[in-house]
Amino acid sequence: MSGGAADMAKTRKPRTSLTIYDVARHAGLSIASVSRVLNGSGNPQSETRDRVMQAVRELSYVPDGAARALSAGLKEVVGVVFRRGEDAGFEEAESPLFDEIVTRGIEASAQRSGFDVLISMAGVDDAPSRLPALAGKTDGLILHDRLLSATALAHLAKLLPVVTLGGRPAPGTMSVRCDNDAGVRALVRHLVADHGYRTLAYLSGHSDSPDSQARAAALEREAKDSPARVLAGPRWTGDYSAAGGARVISALLADGGRLPRAIVCANDQTALGVMHALAQRGIRVPEEVAVTGFDDVAVARHLHPTLTTVRQPIREMGETAFDLLHATIMGRSQVEPDVVLPVQLVVRDSCGCARPGEKA
Amino acid sequence: MSGGAADMAKTRKPRTSLTIYDVARHAGLSIASVSRVLNGSGNPQSETRDRVMQAVRELSYVPDGAARALSAGLKEVVGVVFRRGEDAGFEEAESPLFDEIVTRGIEASAQRSGFDVLISMAGVDDAPSRLPALAGKTDGLILHDRLLSATALAHLAKLLPVVTLGGRPAPGTMSVRCDNDAGVRALVRHLVADHGYRTLAYLSGHSDSPDSQARAAALEREAKDSPARVLAGPRWTGDYSAAGGARVISALLADGGRLPRAIVCANDQTALGVMHALAQRGIRVPEEVAVTGFDDVAVARHLHPTLTTVRQPIREMGETAFDLLHATIMGRSQVEPDVVLPVQLVVRDSCGCARPGEKA
DNA sequence: CTGAAAGCGCTTACAG
DNA sequence: CTGAAAGCGCTTACAG
C-alpha cells in the first residue's frame, strides 16, 4: 500500500509520539484489538494479548489520555479546589490540612479507582471564573467551603457532580463534613463540667465559614444549658490563622477587654496564635486562661502546653468525598448527599488537665 | 428540520452536556466562529463575538477539555508526582514542604500560563508503573527525587518533558534544586567559627536522597578545612522524619554512644525529633548539644529553643520547575537543564545564639 | 471575516 | 475472537 494520489499530507503538527496505529501495525493486528487488550475488554486470545503487549513494550507506547477521554466519555480526573491563603508570605499555609486531605484522603482513594486528581487554588474573587474551565477538564469537582455561593454551587452542579467539604450541601451538590456539633459539645462539657470554668469565649474562623458558624452555634447551645457564661461579640472574630488569633487577643487586651477563663478556638492555628499572644504578655496557659483548638494538626502535640483539641477524621473525609463523587460520576443511582463524620476530643494540657488533681 | 430517514440514531451515550454545535446553532454561526471567539484566535467581528458570548452565557456552555486537548495537541496539564510517606499514620506528612511547593509554587505559576496541575503520590515500588499512565494525561511531569532511577528517568524523558526536584538532572531531563553546598557551608562555619564547636555530626535523611547526600558531602568538605571533627557512621542515618531523628538519638544513647557538640540535621523534621529525644533525657539544647535543621518550615519558629536552620526558596523552586517545564512543552529551543537556587542561613536559638556573649 | 471539512487518537457497537 | 468504520467534540488550515 504505497500512498497514491490521495496522499495529500496535511502535516499540521510534527507527529511526535506513537499512536495506537503504530502498535497495531507493529503487532500485525487491528487497532480494535490493541484497544481491547489494553483495556481488558472483550476477551482477546492469549496470543493476541501477547503480541499487543510485546509491541507496546517494544515501542514504549502510552495511550493518549485526551483521546481516551473523548472517546470513552470519561476523563478519569476529578478536580479539587482549595481556597488560596489570603495573606501569603506571613504565615504558613492557612490550611495545614490541605496536604492531608488531598494526598492521604482524596488522592489515595482516587488512585484505587484509577482516577487522577487535578488541584487548583482559588480565591472567593476568581473562583466563579476559574471553576467552569476546571469543569471542562474533569469528571467532577471537590470544593473547599466558602468558595462559591449556594446559588453558584447549584448552577455549577448542573454541569457536573460537585462535592463540598464543610457546610450543608447546596441543591444538587453533595457534602462531607465533620460533626462540629458533637466536637464542640464534648469540649464545652469538659471545660465546664470537668474543669469548672465559668466563662468561655469562641474565637471564630472566617465569619462566613460554615464550619466556624456551626462551632459557634454549638458552643452557644451547649453553654446555655450549663452554669457557664459566653463572652461574644465582633471582637472575637478570627480568620483561622495564627496571626488572626494573636490579633484578637492583642486588640482585646489593648482595649482593657476581659479574658474568659477558657478560649475555644475555631482551629489549631488560631489557638497557636492565641497562646503566643498570651505568652508574650506573661499570661499563663492553662493556669490563668485555658485554650483549645480544633483539627489536631501535628504542631498541636509540640506546643507548650500541648494543645487540647478536637480531631477531625481528615483522611476519611477526603476518601469519602472522592467516593461520593466517584459513585455519582459512574451513575450510581442515589448517593447520600450529606455525610457527617464523627470527631474525637483529644485532651492534652492546654485545657488544664496537666495540673493533677484539678480534674473534677 | 425533522429527522429524515437518515436519522439512524446510534445513541451510544445519553448525550449529556452541550457541544460547540449547540452554541453555533443558538448563535446562528458556524462552529469555527464559536471556536475562534472562545480562543481569541483570528479576528472575529465584534457582532460575531457578542453573539457567541451571549449564546455561551445563555447555555452555560463549557468546552470539553479532552476534545480541545486532542485537537490542539496540548492538554494544558502538568503532572506533579511526590513520594508517598512510607509510614503513614505515625507522623505528619514526611514532607511538610509539599503544600508549599505545589500550591504556592507550581500551581501559582501554572495558573498564570493557563495550565492545571495533576498530582499523584507514588512509592519507589509503584512509580515505574504509575508514571506512564500519568504521562498520557499530561504535557509534562515534575518529579520528587528518589522516585525513579536515572535510567528510568531518561527513558521517561523520551515520552515527555520531565523536571526533577533535587539532584542532578538525568539525561534528557531538567532539574531544580537548592544550593545545599552553600547552605551547609554557612551552617558549619557558624557552628565552628562563631560558636567554637569542635565536634559535629550530620544526621542524614534517606540515604539515597541526593539532597541528603549533597548536604553530607558539604559538611565533610567544610569540616576538613576546619578545626572541627566529624562523627560519622551508619548510626547517623535518619529518614527525614521526626521519628527517625529521635530513633537515632535513642539508639546512640542506649549504646553509650557519644554525642557531638553540634548535630546538623538533614531537615527540620529530623531536628524536631532530635530535640524531643534530647529533652526527654534532660540533655539541654543548645547548652550541651546544638541542633540545626534544614528547610525552615513554620514549626521551626515555634520550637523551644527556636530552630537555627537553612531556608530553601520553596515557592521559587516550584515556580522555576513549572516554568522550565512550560518552556520545554511550548518548544522553547534551549532551556537550562540544571537550576540551582540560593539558600539562606537562618540563625535562631538552637545553635547557641540565644546565650548572649557566647558568639565569637 | 466566515464556513465547510478534515483530522486529532482513541473506544465501541456492528458484522463477520 | 477480530476487523472496518463511525463517532467523541473540538481546532485549524483552506477557500471564499
Structure description:
- Chain A is of the alpha/beta class.
- The first copy, chain A, has three domains: 20-63, 434 Repressor (Amino-terminal Domain) (Orthogonal Bundle); 77-178 and 314-343, 3-Layer(aba) Sandwich (Rossmann fold), CATH 3.40.50; 180-312, Rossmann fold, CATH 3.40.50.2300.
- Chain A has helices spanning 20-27, 31-39, 46-59, 65-72, 97-112, 127-137, 150-156, 180-194, 210-224, 242-254, 268-280, 314-329; strands spanning 77-83, 116-122, 140-144, 162-165, 174-178, 199-203, 229-231, 262-265, 290-292, 309-311, 338-341, 344-346.
- In chain A, the strands form three sheets. The first copy, chain A, has a six-stranded parallel sheet with strand order 2-1-3-4-5-11, with helices on both faces. In chain A, strands 7-6-8-9 form a four-stranded parallel sheet.
- In chain A, α1 crosses α3, α2 (31-39) packs across α3 and α5 crosses α12.
- The longest helix of chain A has 16 residues, at 97-112.
- Residues 1-15 and 87-94 of chain A have low confidence and may be disordered.
- Chains A and B meet through α4, β1, α5, β2 and α6 of A and α4, β1, α5, β2 and α6 of B.
- β2 of chain A pairs antiparallel with β2 (116-122) of chain B, so a sheet runs across the interface.
- Chain B binds a DNA duplex (16 and 16 nucleotides) through residues 10, 12-13, 19-21, 29-33, 35-36, 39, 41-45, 48, 63-73.
